[in-house]
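note to self: the first set is below, dont mix up w the second
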Amino acid sequence: MAIADINGIQLFYRDSADGEPLLLLHGFTGSGDDWQHVFAEPLAAYRIIAPDLRGHGRSTNPGGVFRFADVAGDIFALLDRLGIDRVKAIGMSAGANTLLHMATQQPSRIVSMIHVSGTPRFPDQARAIMKTMTEEGRSPAEWEQMRGRHHLGDDQIRALWRHTREFADDRDDMNFTAAKLSTIAATTLIVHGDRDPLYPVEQAVELFRGIPNASLWVVPGGGHGPIFGEQAVPFVKAATAFLAAPQAPQAP
């Protein structure tokens, strides 16, 4: 575990140090520790790099702004610091949204990616839910859960809920057109639950149609983030097979 001073923030990350680099990006209001609930056994073939996204876990966000395009810049800066030019990656929800930015900002650097429960843009049903994310009325159990993940005080937690409400008005940061998606060079596996309350499965199909080297796995009965609990085992099996398969050649 280490901290990198990059882009005006302190970015906390875990680095297993050995093997082929594999980047793991968690969901919003989560942290890099969440991946232990997916991968019960270490992925021994890979050098796991699992940061806490800005403002999450043990990472700071003094500017008080959260944009997925900026988070992508944070992660590229971290990879540069670690001397990693090209990487495979898995992103869940916010992590998946970040991967879309990374794969379009610097396409040659993402070899392959697994995009779980992300979206090209925020649909109305997600915006309606986002507007309800206030600290008022949060139960003691919810506060306890958040304090167990985020270690920089209650103001950090309040900021995360505030950012969620701000997403409801976003029309710019998450706005991936078909033309933009077509620039992605990474071989991509899109994983999406057919009961996702935030992002309808039609948006996963849109990503599948737009990304050139994409495959789509719609998880029956899956909600938002269908990779935990009883769904972890089939996900790990599919993910490890995908990551180990030969990747489509990238343009020079």
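second set (the one i keep forgetting abt)
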Amino acid sequence: MSLAELQALEAEHVVPTYLRNPVEFVRGAGCRLWDSDGNEYLDFLAGISVLNVGHCHPRIVETVREQVGRLTHVSNLYYTEPAMKLSARLAESSLGGKVFLCNSGAEANEAAIKLARRARPGGRVVVVQDAFHGRTYGALSATPQESKQAPFAPLVPGFTVVPKDPAALAGAVDDDTAAVLLEPIQGETGIHVLSDELLEAAREACDRTGAVLLFDEIQTGMGRTGTLWGYEQLTVVPDAMTSAKALGGGLPIGALVTGPRLADTLQPGDHGSTFAGGPLIASAALVALEICSDPALLARVQVLGERLAAGLATLPYVTTVRGRGLMLGIDVDPNLAAPDLARRALLEQRVVVNATGPVTIRLEPPLIVTEEEIDEAVARLGALSP
């Protein structure tokens, strides 16, 4: 079908929750995409940090083909080897507790909130300004953005929003607090790295009161910042964390991972998910986790991130570069609109990025990106006229 025909189908039959760019992608390999007209693109968004292993990684493709011909679903009323192995490897690679598998990041955060409330019934959840934790009701209630929350009020009660200030956060946590929920790097609102002081204040406040420190590692995990999990570069270890996006190697999956203290907090019947941990998705996730755990790959992420940041800083319209590893945001000249610039990068220079705000563009290429591809992307972005 032509692009015009697809747009007509969308206009008539698709709930209008997305503003799509006028491109139909039909094939991907590594860090490259091809549209229906045969044009080649450099993908520096990776499906919003989903394709950390790149498009159609041969090992993911082989695993999915083999598993889909054997068994796709039986429900969590029975055992499957991929789900049990994935849970074990997730726990062993991180906090050492237990794992609840689900289908998305928002679902993982819902499970995390329920975990904290099970540990301290009725307790409040403290979040910070500019956070984004998802669009389902609990996750949305933890996302203090007026434009996203206001149309759907009333929200789930019991959420407290504080500035990104260590003293303010510490003062908000008391014996009635169930959890502090934080992204080590705030992704959807513009790649803002939370300060060590803020994270340490959160850890100290939770230790003082018995509240649960939850890290949303949906975007920072799976090697994105140069370590398998973002918290590994910090002085703070959470009590539980959530993962999703890149965990499935391109297929939908989410996970709540606990530390030992909370491993048995949720009991049979407390939570569930029909499709969670199905053998097809779990098989792909096992491979993605193995690839993203490679020490050589992780070391390269930090080097390549520095190379990309340095290149972006040379662009005439860029005023700020921030982030960690291959999770970078740039602020552009306020006289230019970032959404327009991102759209022009796609249509004129065939580089896939996205705008997270009026002046901010996010870049999250696959972790397998090469030096040459980074230089090529920077050159293409530099060719955009102001």
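remember for set 2: Residues 295-313 form the longest helix (19 residues).
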